[in-house]
Amino acid sequence: MPDKPDKPTKPTPRPKTPGKIASDATTDRAPDTTEKAVQALRESLTKPNAPMRPHPRPLPTKPRRVSGGIRLKRKEGEELASVPERRLMRLLELSAGPSAIEEGTEYARLGQTRTLVVEPGLVRASVQGRRTRSYDIQLKVDAFTPEQWDAVADQLNEQPHIAAEVLGGRLPADVEHVFEPLGLSLLPASPDAVRVVTTCPDSPEGGGWSKHACCVVMLLSERIAADPSVAFTLRGLPDGELAERMSHRRLLSAGGANPKPIYQPRVEGASDAALPEGEALLERFWESPADLDALDLALEPPPVPTPMLRRLGSSPFEDAKFPLVGLLATCYEVARERLLKEESGEADEPRAPAEEETPAAEDKPEPVSRPKTAEERAAAIRAKMMGKANRRK
Length: 393
Hints:
Shape: elongated
Strand content: 5-15%
Order of helices and strands: HHHHEEEHHHEHHHHHHH
Number of strands: 4
Number of helices: 14
Largest sheet: 4 strands, antiparallel
Strand order of the largest sheet: 1-2-3-4
Low-confidence stretches: 19-27, 256-265, 354-358
Helix content: 40-55%
Mean pLDDT: 76
């Protein structure tokens, strides 16, 4: 009889060892590797003085260079010649430390200042340090009120020698004598007169006299020395308004409450005459309907010679050998002397001496040296210039 096929046998299951069963059970309950790393990190962060972030890169030892920055023109070891430089340097010595002044001087010489703007009561500057971003520096001072500037104008009218220097673009050493009687000061002299605001993190509470603030003060002093109107702008007076305010105060003092012109000439037939219009006005422009001698003009020398030239300052032509300002001053003085002589009747024609009055050569007295007049000085200048022109030809 045929053999029956064998029945498929089931694979015999492998018995589980007790050790394997214990291993599978502990695998489900134990934390994985990631959880262990996170737990270790948390424990390390809870330790004292643990770093919360990677250490920053160290700052460079020198400040970052600035292209086209504002530099201090004064050389090292050069004395402070101007009044603003001496006054503001004294302010730094009273306010900042020696290291801040020394480093601020170095910053000013290197040209680390990007911008420097002077406004009424405020100086704004941007100074580049060792960090990537530059620091914003603000120097705040008290601006004078209009009433205080009126009082300053009155003081300047009473002291014409100081007024002439100031209007001529210079700050004399005694300029503070104008402000002291009023309890004011043109240039800040005490530490509490200037409030410093800066974004430098090394400064306490966002303010203080850091090296960046010292750099700005040094550049400001040099700018005021070159242009004194910057100091008046900082105190709240726009450039060019000082002369107008002084003139206005003189008119008020002369006319009382209602200001009037100092001189009001009126000539009968001229002041009340009807003026022509159009082409008739051009044709008769140089004509006078009345005698000009009737005008009562008081001719007196000004208290300050050549005030307009002092106001305008030096000649705008750089490296010019022609003495323009000096020659104009001489011409003005010659014209003034001639006009005053004609007014007083002293300008008589020179009379030639008679023959009998002419002394002999041996009897002539020796010439006595006397100071040259303005006309003689002008003639000497013209002769000197003509001689140079002939030599060049």
